[in-house]
Amino acid sequence: xxxxxxxxxxxxxxxxxxxxxxxxxxxxxxxxxxxxxxxxxxxxxxxxxxxxxxxxxxxxxxxxxxxxxxxxxxxxxxxxxxxxxxxxxxxxxxxxxxxxxxxxxxxxxxxxxxxxxxxxxxxxxxxxxxxxxxxxxxxxxxxxxxxxxxxxxxxxxxxxxxxxxxxxxxxxxxxxxxxxxxxxxxxxxxxxxxxxxxxxxx
Amino acid sequence: xxxxxxxxxxxxxxxxxxxxxxxxxxxxxxxxxxxxxxxxxxxxxxxxxxxxxxxxxxxxxxxxxxxxxxxxxxxxxxxxxxxxxxxxxxxxxxxxxxxxxxxxxxxxxxxxxxxxxxxxxxxxxxxxxxxxxxxxxxxxxxxxxxxxxxxxxxxxxxxxxxxxxxxxxxxxxxxxxxxxxxxxxxxxxxxxxxxxxxxxxxxxxxxxxxxxxxxxxxxxxxxxxxxxxxxxxxxxxxxxxxxxxxxxxxxxxxxxxxxx
Lengths: 202, 260
Hints:
Number of domains of chain B: 1
Oligomer: heterodimer
CATH superfamily of chain B: Aldolase class I
CATH class of chain B: Alpha Beta
Helix content of chain B: 25-40%
Strand content of chain B: 15-25%
Number of strands of chain B: 11
CATH superfamily of chain A: Class I glutamine amidotransferase (GATase) domain
Order of helices and strands of chain A: EHEHEHHEHEEEEEEEEEH
Strand content of chain A: 25-35%
Number of helices of chain A: 6
Largest sheet of chain B: 8 strands, parallel, barrel
Largest sheet of chain A: 8 strands, mixed
Strand order of the largest sheet of chain A: 2-1-3-4-13-12-11-8
CATH architecture of chain B: Alpha-Beta Barrel
Radius of gyration of chain B: 17 Å
C-alpha cells in the first residue's frame, strides 16, 4: 500500500485519485506507525516551507519521515514534499528540512518572468532514472516560486529563464517539483513507475 | 520552456454542461466528466468550469460534479461562478478543483482575495475580471456576469487584485465575447504588463490567428475559448500545431498511456 502523508498542507486527494485511477491502492494517513509499515510513501504538499515543517513537528512526523525516506524503500516527495527532503529553503531561513539531501531551495529571481512558475514546462531527464521510464511526454504541470538550483542530486532539468532542477534523488527516493497527479498521461506514467517499485530496500 | 496554455471553458448548471457541446462519439455531451475527459485527450492544458446558475440550493450538485471530474481527469481545472465566501472556496477545493475563480465577490469585498490567498495559497485563487471598453485606453470592470457596471478601472483593479494575492487573472472582454473577431489584445497586453501573475485571455476567439495574437501582442500566458471548441469548429490539436509552427511554446499532445 502507498501511504500519502497528511500534515494539513494541500490537496492530498488528487494524488490519491491518481493512484486509484492507476489501480494502485493508497491511503491517506498522519500516523507514524502506518507510515513506517507502508511499502511506499508519498509526501505531497502545497504552501509555505516553514509552515510545513511546523506541521510535521506538531504531528510528530519529522523523525519518522526522515528515517523512512532514508531506508531504501520507495519514497516520493511532490512539490513542497520535494523541498522538505532537502536541508532547507530560503523561504524559511534557518528552519531545517528533513535533510536527506544537502541544498537550499531559492526563490526564482524576478528576471525570469512571472513568479510563481505556473503551467506546463518540459523536462530533460536522466534516461537511466527509473522514475522516467517510458514516459509518454516530457511536459509536466508546475506551480511554485522556490526551486532547486544545485545540481548534485538532480535527475532532470527544466528551463525557466535559466536552468533549475525539477527532480532529484537516488535509489528509490525521489522528489519532484511538478505535480505528476496533474500532469496528464505523462504524470500518471511517472506515478505508475513509482507504484510498481518493489517495497524492499535496494 | 514554459508553454502557453489552451483552456476550454465549460458552462455548467445543476451539474450538467449547458449551451451545448458536440463531440463525435460522445455518449453524453451534457456530462461534464465525459466532456472533460475528452478535452484532456485532445490536449487541453487546463479546464474551466463556470457554474452559470450558481444558486445556493445547487451547491451540492456542483460539488459532486467537481468530485467526479477530479476522479477521472488529471489535468488542472478551475471552478467559478457564485463563489462568495472562504467556505465556498474550501468546499470546491476539497472536492478536487485545483483553483477557484472569483469575480463579483472579489470586487464587492476585495479583502476576500487576501484572506483566500493566505488560507489556501495564491496559486489557487483566480480573479476573474469582465471588462468593457469605454473609449480610448479605458476599460471598465463589470460584475454579475458582465451585466453591472462598477465604475472601476480595469487596469487599476487587476493591479489591486494581484497585489492582494490573486494567483492568476482571467480577463474577459465583454465587447469581444461571442463576436469571434479576436481577443481584445490591447487590454490583455496592458494587464499582463501591469501584474506579475499569469493572465488568461478570454472572449472573442474565432480563428487560430486570434489565439496567436493574444499570446504574442497580447502577452497572455494562456488563452481560453468555449463555443469554438465545443462545436468542433476548431480542434485543439490543429490549434496547437498552428501555434507550434509559429514558434509558440506549447505542450505536445501525448499518446494514451497503458494502465497498470
